[in-house]
């Protein structure tokens, strides 16, 4: 995603809006083609007993391709295309500093359950971004999963993903 | 007048000590459910349904419908304060509610939202009380082509009235339809776009998309702007409430229009979500300050809230009179009725008078109790805002993850939520509107099935969509909405041409 735009200098260096417009339009165009392809695979026509499974999505795919091509054309050839920086490197780092931990958190949930992962995620986030003292981090990061546990597991009877720790205490 | 005496009798049923208690508990639980993203009204009612099996049916339905009212109210709280719609029908409330909150007018936005919801619901209950038999007859005329036409109208009005570029609006909308088509095709049993993955069999749930697009997307955007919920302060006290109430009568027309749209969409099962979007779009078109919509206009809060509540309330009408649920939550309540051994339909009004009129009376009372509860508990919800962002942000991510997981008890959905978060971030920065995407995802299945049924009826002839006056006029209106930007441009050019001529004449 991090593609260097060369038109700005200094602190404003980053990914250009035009690049991102093109990338997103190409992605939606590709999705449109996938929809068309799959609709044709399952049948986009008329069977004996009525419209086939791909009948409706086929047209959705065509309109999606058309709209993406329109956006692409606008970005590339129309003078009105957006200029400027989509996101500077500095800001991208900030965004990633929350997105990457979130990805790790979700991945960790598979192995250690949502309660332990949540406690760790909240604790790390508070330490890293808020520079809180441990005397505040520990009670907050522990009380949230406990409240969630009471609310979902006990009160609403909704089971959430659990790991080895919950198994140890009999859940 | 017969309705009036029945209603009075209903009040005597609803106003017992324990029914009032159930009402109170129901509203509080409902607000909680509405505030938690992912735990919607339908889920909440479904989860709590087993708890009510031991209660008498009247008390049970009073409590469950109050959960529903509470969820309708609660959805507005997170939409306005955090830009996270707790419910799909509060998505449109975020458009102006959140900018208002950001500008330090959270108290006003919340009061306006709650009051409009209350007014929408109240008028809808009056409609239910007095027009029930008449409306039931009309909705019997609705066939698949009419349903599809109404949906077409909703989508076309987005393209024509939206502020974004039409190409981007259409792309976002089609993306929603495409995602809605993924999974098992219920008509033919064919697997569509699953590419051999069993996890994709379920398809994409709109709740996952909403949680990702709005919840995670907003966190990413907020991070980019620095570690703060900028300027969101919610001071709500009697003075703010009174000040807002004094301003609200200005928007009586918007509220009335929203309520009418809501009643219409609730009775003809369009539902609260499209009703709120449609009301917002139309309010924007007709407002004198339409161009300011999206920057924090109170009118932009009044429009979707009145419509959502009116639709949510009137959705119970076809459920009671015909056994056709007008919304997912009404469908769950219908399931409850059957479990309690009550057969919905016109006979219910004859055989179970106490039940029907007790329920209708509780709608009046429940909404009054609801308004009082939400207005008094908002400072408590707003206190969340004083917590630093570096604590709130991970908690919101955790709540979003839990919300995404509980929809289908699937871990893949949590991962998908993150993907939708990135999509939300990109789309928001590139001015792709998110609302049409979500709406298409919500209504995709319904639109497709009504389209298919229409095609089956006509053996593939598209002319079925103008085969009678009703469907024809809705379709014509849809086309008018779709080409509205072109029409206004042409009209402007014509008018300018006339002016040029007028100016030219005196010279001659």
TrEMBL record, chain A:
Annotated transmembrane regions: 20-36, 56-73, 94-127, 133-158
Taxonomic superkingdom: Bacteria
Keyword tags: Membrane, Transmembrane, Transmembrane helix
Domain DUF1468: 23-161
Name assigned to this protein: DUF1468 domain-containing protein
Automatic annotation (TrEMBL), chain B:
Protein name (record): Tricarboxylate transporter
Segments traversing the membrane: 20-49, 61-82, 109-135, 147-164, 170-191, 203-223, 259-283, 322-343, 355-376, 383-404, 410-427, 463-487
Record keywords: Membrane, Transmembrane, Transmembrane helix
Native source species: Sulfuricaulis limicola
Keyword Isomerase: no
Domain called DUF112: residue spans: 20-439
């Amino acid at each position: 995603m991090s593609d260097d735009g060369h038109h700005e200098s200094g602190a404003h260096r980053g990914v250009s809006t035009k690049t991102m417009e093109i990338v997103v339009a190409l992605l939606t165009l590709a999705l449109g083609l996938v929809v068309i392809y799959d609709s044709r695979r399952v049948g986009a026509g008329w069977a004996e007993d009525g419209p086939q499974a791909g009948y409706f999505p086929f047209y959705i795919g065509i309109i999606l391709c058309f709209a993406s091509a329109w956006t692409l054309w606008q970005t590339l050839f129309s003078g009105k295309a957006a200029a400027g920086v989509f996101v500077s490197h500095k800001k991208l780092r900030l965004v990633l500093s929350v997105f990457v931990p979130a990805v790790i958190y979700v991945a960790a949930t598979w192995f250690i359950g949502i309660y332990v992962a949540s406690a760790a995620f909240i604790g790390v986030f508070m330490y890293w971004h808020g520079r809180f003292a441990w005397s505040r981090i520990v009670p907050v990061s522990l009380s949230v999963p406990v409240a969630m546990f009471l609310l979902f597991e006990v009160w609403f009877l909704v089971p959430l993903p659990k790991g080895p720790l919950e198994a140890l205490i009999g859940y | 007048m017969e309705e009036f005496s029945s209603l009075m009798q209903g009040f005597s049923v609803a106003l017992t000590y324990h029914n009032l208690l159930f009402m109170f508990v129901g509203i509080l639980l409902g607000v909680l459910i509405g505030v938690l993203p992912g735990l919607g009204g339908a889920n909440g009612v479904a989860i709590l349904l087993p708890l009510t099996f031991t209660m008498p049916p009247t008390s049970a339905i009073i409590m469950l419908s109050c959960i529903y009212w509470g969820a309708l109210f609660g959805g507005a709280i997170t939409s306005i304060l955090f830009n996270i719609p707790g419910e799909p029908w509060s998505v449109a409330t975020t458009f102006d509610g959140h900018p208002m909150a950001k500008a330090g007018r959270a108290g006003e936005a919340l009061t306006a939202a709650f009051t409009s919801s209350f007014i929408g619901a109240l008028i809808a209950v009056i409609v239910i009380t007095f027009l029930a038999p008449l409306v039931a007859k009309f909705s019997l005329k609705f066939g698949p082509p009419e349903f599809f036409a109404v949906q077409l109208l909703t989508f076309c009005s987005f393209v024509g009235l939206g502020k974004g570029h039409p190409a981007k609006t259409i792309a976002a909308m089609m993306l929603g339809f495409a995602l809605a088509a993924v999974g098992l095709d219920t008509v033919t049993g064919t697997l569509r776009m699953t590419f051999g993955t069993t996890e994709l069999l379920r398809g994409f749930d709109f709740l996952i998309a909403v949680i990702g697009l709005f919840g995670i997307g907003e966190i990413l955007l907020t991070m980019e702007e620095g570690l703060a919920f900028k300027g969101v302060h919610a001071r709500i006290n009697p003075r703010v409430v009174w000040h807002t109430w004094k301003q609200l009568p200005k928007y009586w027309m918007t509220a009335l229009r929203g309520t009418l749209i809501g009643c219409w969409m609730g009775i003809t099962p369009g539902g609260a979500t499209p009703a709120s979007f449609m009301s917002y779009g139309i309010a924007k078109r007709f407002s004198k300050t339409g161009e300011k919509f999206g920057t924090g206009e109170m009118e932009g809060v009044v429009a979707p809230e009145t419509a959502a509540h009116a639709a949510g309330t009137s959705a119970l009408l076809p459920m009671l009179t015909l056994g056709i649920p007008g919304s997912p939550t009404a469908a769950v309540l219908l399931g409850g009725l059957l479990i309690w051994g009550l057969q919905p339909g016109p006979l219910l009004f004859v055989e179970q008078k106490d039940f029907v009129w007790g329920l209708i009376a509780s709608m009046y009372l429940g909404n009054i109790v609801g308004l009082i509860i939400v207005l008094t508990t908002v400072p408590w919800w707003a206190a969340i805002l004083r917590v630093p962002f570096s604590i709130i942000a991970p908690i919101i991510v955790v709540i979003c993850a839990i919300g995404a997981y509980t929809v289908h008890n699937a871990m893949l959905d949590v991962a998908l939520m993150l993907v939708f978060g990135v999509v939300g971030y990109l789309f928001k920065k590139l001015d792709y509107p998110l609302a049409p995407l979500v709406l298409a995802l919500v209504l995709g299945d319904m639109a497709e099935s009504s389209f298919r049924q229409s095609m089956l009826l006509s053996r593939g002839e598209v002319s079925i969509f103008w085969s009678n006056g009703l469907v024809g006029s809705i379709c014509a209106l849809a086309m008018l909405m779709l080409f509205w930007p072109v029409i206004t441009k042409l009209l402007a050019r014509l008018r300018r041409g006339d002016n040029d001529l007028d100016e030219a004449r005196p010279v001659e």
